[in-house]
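Subject: Putative Regulatory protein LuxR structure
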Amino acid sequence: MLSVEEFPGRSTSPLRKMATLVSAIGQDEFATSALDALDEAVGVDHLSLLRINAKGDVDFRAATSVGGSHLSDAVSREYFHRFTHLDPVRSVSRRRMVPGGYLLVRVTGKDVLNASYRQACYTNPDIGERLTIFSRVNGLDYQINLYRVSSRGRFGEDAPQFLSGVAEILLPAIMRHADLISGPGEGRVRRLSLEALEHRVRRLNDKLSDREIDVCSRMLYGQSIEGTALDLEISQTSVVTYRRRAYAKLGITCHNELFALAM
């Protein structure tokens, strides 16, 4: 006798959202899809994704928050410009990293010895704990940073087990996304300044407004919607509106097509 089990067409498990994440690779919604999947599974307030080259420079970053808060991008910007080399995860990785494998590291403010770093990235934004998935592949370091605010307490004891189970989905997805958005490690996009990207976007269509150029160039630069809004001092809704208008004028529908046109 055959044994048959019937399953609904749309699972409600977090793993279904991992499938959505894979389909968002190369799209503007990638970081949001990652946060959505991880928040449902382990409870995440803020998320940042980073790629760090052999020189220790962050050459790709994306950040987003539950509810669209600017906080995660502000924190990742501070980290990006000032504190990458002081991250305790970096020192742990130098001692314990196996190339091709990954580490899962818990970090609280108490683990951060530098007072300025601790104040900017933990105390001021009220970050209680961070979980980081770290991997080194072909000389490039990848970090998935999951943050929780103090009022929500620490991540549950089951969080590391879940993250270890999905790391082999998350990490390749982020690697591919970073390649598409910022080039493969030593890619040409990263070497272009924001001013150079603005010039390239401007040449695509003389009907683009200055704000539409500002938004598109920052998307090519690797900034998230939240980061672009913060940088231009406009709302996230305005960023989406300017992006939609620019895409319509250019006859495209997504980031990949913008990348293909401009690069």
